[in-house]
Structures are given as structure tokens and as C-alpha cells.
Amino acid sequence: MAAAAPDLATIDAVLPTCRACPRLVAWREEVAVEKRAAFRDETYWGRPVPGFGDEHARVMMVGLAPAAHGGNRTGRLFTGDPSGDFLFAALHRTGFASQPTSRSRDDGLVLTGLRMAAPVRCAPPANAPTPSERHTCGPYLARELAILDPAVVVVLGGFGWKAVRATLAEQGWHVPRPRPVFGHGAEVVLTGSDAADARPPLTLLGCFHVSPHNTHTGRLTPAMLDAVLRRARVLGGLD
Length: 239
Prior knowledge:
By secondary structure, the protein is α/β, with parallel strands linked by helices. The protein contains 8 helices and 7 strands; from the N terminus they run H-H-E-E-H-H-E-H-E-H-E-E-E-H-H.
């Protein structure tokens, strides 16, 4: 169904019904029932989490997967967890987000020029999807990329980098060999597979993931994230 979806709205409507990965289905639903004490009075989303943002975005941001008590609870990527607190503040500072915080799907947040997605749409145990789960979920990301046709993809973390790289190669983009290695600030320009492929170039930008492991240790600072986002604005023709 993902491969045939005519628009982003259709993907976003269909995706939450997916039950293709038994391990992920079991985990996301277990978390939604057991809950975290701080959220015991809330109704968890407990389903695959669709993309979010501007349907005409020049920049796509790709992470890893929803957090068990973040996106799996709220139904929106990065919403309601520490990673999102760090990320949305930066998106607000750099002109992509209408507000610096994101607490729920109906909090009024608007993204301009940017859409968020993930290679895996269900919260995985230990934040560790398997390659098979990435492959199964891949058509959703592939179709989003094909419909949106962004100029820039900002990739958060090494897992997302490999997933995006594989998805773009499957779509016929020329991905150089040896394969571009992930790193913070990495910048790779991809072109169509041959001279007859007239697609405009696509730039991948690498950024350390906004997980607390990186942000609390100073491996990723607000200034470092802002620099990547500002570079994405320039490459996307937004500044």
C-alpha cells in the first residue's frame, strides 16, 4: 500500500494500521498498556507513528524510530520526550518550528519548510530495530521521499544514515562507492543514476542523534545542531 500511496496524507492515514513486524507490535502495545508512572493517566498512541510537517518541505529530517514514551505515547515523532525538547528548541531557533516545545499532537506546533520521518515507525525494544524491521518499514520512507522530493535530507544518527542511504539507492539514486560514511556535519550530494535521470541533486547532511546520551554529554551541543539546520536552510533554498 505504501508504494502506491498517491500523497502524504494517504501514507499518514494508512501507516498507523500496520502490523507487519510482530516483535514491534508486541512491544509498542505492551508499553502502551503498562505505561510510565508519570503518564499513567494518559492514553498512549501505541501504533506506528506517521511523518509530520510541511507537505511541501524542501528539507526532510530522518531519525531512528519513535521513543517508547515519546512518539509511541503522543502519536507524533519526537513529541513529549527529552530528545524532542532539544530538537524542537533548535528548530524554533532556526526558523523551522512555530514554537520551541512539543508536548502533544494538538499543541499547535507547525513546521515550515521541513518534514520529519523515521526509517522505523514503531517504538523498538531498547531503541534497537533490526535490519529486517528496517527493510519491512522501508517502503513508507521511500514513498515519502518520492512524493516530497526534498532538496536536503538531514539524518540524525548512524542507523538513520544507513537506512536513508539504502532507501535512496533502491530508488535509483547514485550512491557512491565506497558508501558515504556517517559523521556529524557529513555532507554528500547524490545525483540520478545516469545521464538520462534529470532529478535535481539531493544533499544528505549528517547530524549526531538528539538522544540524551549525546546531548547530556556534550557530544551534540545546541550550536552544533543549529549549524546543521542552518546549512540545511541554505541548501534547501530557504535562506
